[in-house]
Amino acid sequence: MASGWESARPSYNGPDHARDELVQGFESVLESGFGADLTIICGNEKLLYHCAIVCPRSKYFAAAAWGQFKVRSHGITDYGNCLQPQQESKTKTIDLSQESLPMVKRMMRYFYVLDYDDQEYNDNNWADPVAPTSPGVLSVFEINAQMYALADQFGVEGLKKVAASKFELRCKETMSSMHASHMNAMLRSVEAIYTSTPEGDTTLRATIARAVAFLPAGRQACMEILEFKSICSRYPDFMWDVLANRMNDGKNSWHRWSDTTTPDDREAASWGRNHLF
Predict the structure, then answer these.
(1) Whole-angstrom distance, CA of residue 205 vs CA of residue 272
(2) Of 28, 50, 148, 166, nearest to 108 (Cα)?
(3) What distance in Å separates the CA atoms of residue 21 and residue 206, rounded to the nearest whole number?
(4) SS in 3 state form for 70-115?
(5) Which of 21-25, 28-32, 144-148 has the weakest average pLDDT?
(6) What's the pLDDT score for residue 70?
(7) Rounded to whole angstroms, how far apart are CA atoms 163 and 264?
(8) CA-to-CA distance for 105 and 170, rounded, in angstroms?
(9) Which residues are within 8 A (CB) of 45 and not within 5 positions of it... i.e. 6 or more apart?
(10) Would you tell me how many other CB atoms lie within 10 Å of the CB of residue 93?
(11) Most confidently modeled range among 15-29, 70-84, 221-235
(12) CA-CA distances (angstroms) from residue 56 to 75, 145, 157, 158?
């Protein structure tokens, strides 16, 4: 169902009808499970997929299902050929019970359509999935951050790019709208980013730091949602990344990055000096 929050599919240079037909075909294969030869156990469910579709896009699943590498439950330990095939490669059954079922389903859907839905819906948050208020329901920022971490864990480079692109798009939309609850949701994703992504992987960290460093000024909502004392005491690396953006890029970086209209630059710079640092 189309909505104001609908995310764009990955770019494709071919005819739209060819792309749509291809996606519909893979969606049909995914939904029907016809010919499935790969079983994923997660939560209380057994999910059926296809090795020929999944394994070429993931080092982890290629290792587990085809027995090409030594594997462990959270990553690949040896990229050399195994002398003894792993149990997963014999049964084509992989146990991901330690992972989040909704996130695993999003990842597996990506293998078929090169995309995933970064929203969660229920009776209480259907109107605004960007910043849901229901307990336990993740925002789009948290979903995309967790998908990025999951893609890194399972060696799915394409999914990392899609998750990073979606996360950046959501940040730009939020900074353009200056919606208080959306900015609050964006800030809450700091925890997911700084605890689940490798320290040397700065993709999402740079995005959230840029967004916060160059918040437009002149809105009391900014003062209310930016709980910097709490956030920065728990994640000092985040505070340093925000500071580095302000020091290195200058007050116009936000405009170059976001390509959106914001309040006066001088006002924004003054607000940052007074409230961020």
Answers:
(1) 19
(2) 50
(3) 36
(4) EEECCEEEECCCCCCCCHHHHHCEEECCCCCHHHHHHHHHHHHHCC
(5) 21-25
(6) 46
(7) 31
(8) 21
(9) 101
(10) 15
(11) 15-29
(12) 16, 23, 11, 11
**Cβ-count burial of 210 within 10 angstroms (0-12 exposed, 13-18 middle, 19+ buried)?**
buried
Tokens linked to 84: 């003894």
Q: pLDDT tens digit string along 28-84?
A: 889 888 889 999 999 899 999 999 999 999 989 988 888 754 444 444 444 333 333
User: Quick one: pLDDT band at residue 204, thresholds 50, 70, 90?
Assistant: very high
- Section 103-121 average pLDDT: 92
| Locus of tokens 């494709």 | 12
Check: CB of residue 67 under 8 Å from CB of residue 82.
yes
* CB 114, CB 10: distance < 8 Å: yes
The total of other beta-carbon atoms located within 10 Å of residue 262's CB is: 18
Tell me which residue of 110, 145, 104 sits closest to 235, measured CA to CA: 145
